[in-house]
Design brief:
Layout lengths: L3 H34 L4 H18 L11 H4 L10 H4 L4
């Protein structure tokens, strides 16, 4: 004769296994998406930003600006590009 107390350890184990399975499936899905789509990188953001700037300059009749393609400069936010390095690299 099987009692309710005999089934409890199995139900506790099952309640712990499902979250672990969900986490494993989530990590697997993220890994598959990363391998499929890949790392976008800063060049994607730079391309989007240059397209936006070109469209806005045409829309508001502003003069054209040169497109920046240097990866080191693209890592610096546009608002800090004209700031001397000594200002944002200072050790305070």
């Amino acid at each position: 004769m099987v009692t309710i107390e005999d089934d409890k350890p199995h139900s506790n184990l099952a309640s712990m296994v499902w979250p672990i399975i969900v986490i494993a499936l989530s990590i697997t899905a993220v890994a598959i998406l990363y391998l499929t789509i890949g790392h976008i990188g800063p060049t994607y953001s730079a391309n989007v930003m240059s397209q936006q700037q070109r469209r806005l300059r045409q829309q508001y009749n502003l003069p054209a600006q040169p497109i920046i393609t240097n990866p080191k400069i693209l890592q610096i936010p546009p608002s800090l590009r004209n700031v001397p390095p000594s200002v944002y690299y200072s050790s305070k």
